[in-house]
Amino acid sequence: MEKLLEVKNLKTYFYSERGVVKAADDVSFYVNKGETLGIVGESGCGKSITSMSIARLVETPPGKYVGGEILLNGEDMLKVSDERIRQIRGNDISYIFQEPMTSLNPVFKIGRQISESLMLHRGMSQKEAYKESIKMLELVKIPNPERVVDDYPFALSGGMRQRAMIAMALACEPKLLVADEPTTALDVTIQAQVLDLMNELKEKIDASIMFITHDLGVISEMCDRVMVMYAGKVVEVATTEDIFKNPRHPYTIGLIASKPDMSTKSSRLHVIPGNVPDLNNLPAGCPFSTRCSHVMDKCKTAFPEEVVLDGQHRIACYLYTEGGSKQ
Prior knowledge:
By secondary structure, the protein is of the alpha/beta class. It folds into two domains: 3-92 and 174-320, P-loop containing nucleotide triphosphate hydrolases (Rossmann fold); 102-172, no CATH class. The protein has eleven helices and twelve strands. The protein has helices at 47-54, 82-88, 100-103, 110-122, 126-139, 145-148, 158-170, 188-205, 216-222, 240-245, 250-257, and strands at residues 3-16, 19-32, 36-40, 63-72, 75-76, 93-96, 176-180, 208-213, 225-230, 233-239, 307-310, 313-315. The longest helix has 18 residues, at 188-205. It is globular and about 65 Å long. The two termini are 30 Å apart. The mean pLDDT is 88.
């Protein structure tokens, strides 16, 4: 398959009085055209910072892109001019964030906020953009779009605001849609509707999706491949089917085991011991070593090189390197 996005050795760090926070540390992955890549991990693992780095949305300072490449159709996002990255944002790359009420401007009507990107990127007149905004609201199945286009965000329910955010994100038919936990604040029924809508619209505009979440149930329904992150590092990447049928990294195994299973009679959930380490004070070696039941001496000295196990299954764990116990 043809790659739309390729990230190579991305390093996005934050500098503060307490020290350097390596929020995305040597992160490498790719997204194929027409593919949905899921990014999963606990809070604080670097998922959002990695996604924001793609369109250079990390505020600098205190953030800094220390190294790496972000290639969108072969063009390095870290090297293009500020003017060029503004052209790319909203046009080639669009974002759907977790809480639409904080992403939508409360003092502007919905129609004006959708129209803005249409006028900027597509060169439409205000009247043309207004009509297209109504069409976009209709596309995301908002009832009475002719009325909603003139509503303020606070007049809409959470589900309707999220649909309006999706309409805004898809207005310019982006090549890559980045969805950062877009259904976390919604109830289960509305969540299912929004996910179905995203899949439907993805097919219509032939877009690729980066879907960031901590919900493994959503991952299993939405994604073609899964990337597991921990403390700013990529620890495992595989197809969705392979991740759930044959997880290899101890952290991935722990995440999947933590998912409620209605087929068992046990009332207790599996818990990964400990917490994600403070990124200001990471342990030496593999950051998961302080919580891992398979920890070895070398885990505490250096982060393991990535190993390709079979097909698309990649893992960074000493259990699978030369001399590891699972070779």
